[in-house]
Amino acid sequence: MDTQTLASRRSRKVWLSADCGSFDHFRTLVEKTADPADWPFADGIEKNILIYDGEKVRNAAGDEHDRRALMAEWVEAFTSGPGIIAIKNAMPDGAVVDRATAVFDAIVRDEREKGKGAGDHFAKPGANDRIWNSLEKHCLADPENFARYYASTAVAMVSEAWLGAGYQMTAQMNRVNPGGTAQKPHRDYHLGFMTPQQMQAYPGHIHAVSPLLTLQGAVAHCDMPLESGPTLFLPYSQTFFEGYIAFGRPEFQAHFAEHHVQLPLQKGDAVFFNPAVMHGAGNNVSKDIYRMANLLQVSSAFGRAMESINRNRMSVTVYPALLAALEAGALNRAEAANVIASTAEGYAFPTNLDSDPPVGGLAPKTQAQIMAESIDAKVDAARFAELIAAHAARREA
To answer: Which CATH number belongs to the domain containing residue 199 in this structure?
Structure first.
């Protein structure tokens, strides 16, 4: 193999293009059927989704051998298996779920009265009801109920199975009202929150790592028959490597529309899935079902830097020097971008999505973007400091 061919092969492997990924290969992967013999802890398989009984999960948790064996089964289900599990009766006390629902209702009313009108990722503000950071708001509004709710053995076990110890829980309540429309099928956070152009800036091994950093889940706060639009899934789609970039293309969207599966849920059931599974909320075509779910997004403890850095202070301090160096010709634009990358926060999350909502996409503006735009506009240092302070304030919970 000559040097040019070797370099080209490596480049294609590392830097994914907008048209990468074979549709025929994808179709082969998602045509699999789960074999019950492979999933001995499951109570059954419905539409290629593995179904577990919450009481049996809680019993297994009391035996270390069974606990680890069940968790290992879930890991395989999320990686090479269907990618989705449902735990029936994951929240065994309906009164706890009902009280949490009442807390969420009160938060929605309070936020409406204050004019917050939380927007959704897939619906215009007001069409559905969304509580960003329902985790913290729930805790502050009713700590007793919060403690009983998040005492769930099922939630803890599946989170630890996928992410290990030290996982970080976050949650967002979403209520899709009658007439609420479906999401475009997609993958989830991290790369799933980016445009195809943004995704191409990340090498292939990051596309492989992204699904390992989070776990997606949802707790049903009401019975969810199919007409209420519970989440649509395409089992085994997480095994298609190029899916982050490819799934937005017409042929993949059409395949999803024809072959997705949908599982009705009852209050207290929970669903968990690999964030790389192609999925999307369904249409709520019911007349009177206000489909409420508490969406759990659990993150690995490892997605963090070693040191705490005050990037606000650094950005404000270096900005005048960077602007002066550019004006004097001591640095060019590419070198200035390198300085910004080492100084400012270049990622939009975590943030307070109530006060720092996405603008023109799925993610709000980053500190690094504000710094680059200010450099381009030659904003003076005092004004830049104000912009950074306002940005930091918006991100605080």
So the answer is: 2.60.120.620
Phi, psi at 38, each rounded to 5°: -80, -10
Say if residue 333 is in the same domain as residue 245: no
User: What is the number of domains present in the chain?
Assistant: 2
pLDDT of amino acid 56? 98
Taking only the tens place, the pLDDT of each residue in 350-395 is 999 899 988 667 889 999 999 999 999 999 999 999 999 999 999 9
Burial profile 130-164: b = 16 or more Cβ within 10 angstroms, e = fewer: bbbbbbebbbebbeebbebbbebbbbebbbbbbbe
- Say how far apart CA 244 and CA 281 lie, in whole Å: 18
Q: What is the residue range of 380's domain?
A: 311-395
Burial (Cβ within 10 Å: 0-12, 13-18, ≥19) of residue 237: buried
Q: CA 132 to CA 17: how far, in whole Å?
A: 33
pTM (two decimals): 0.90
Helix (H) / strand (E) containing 279:
strand 278-280
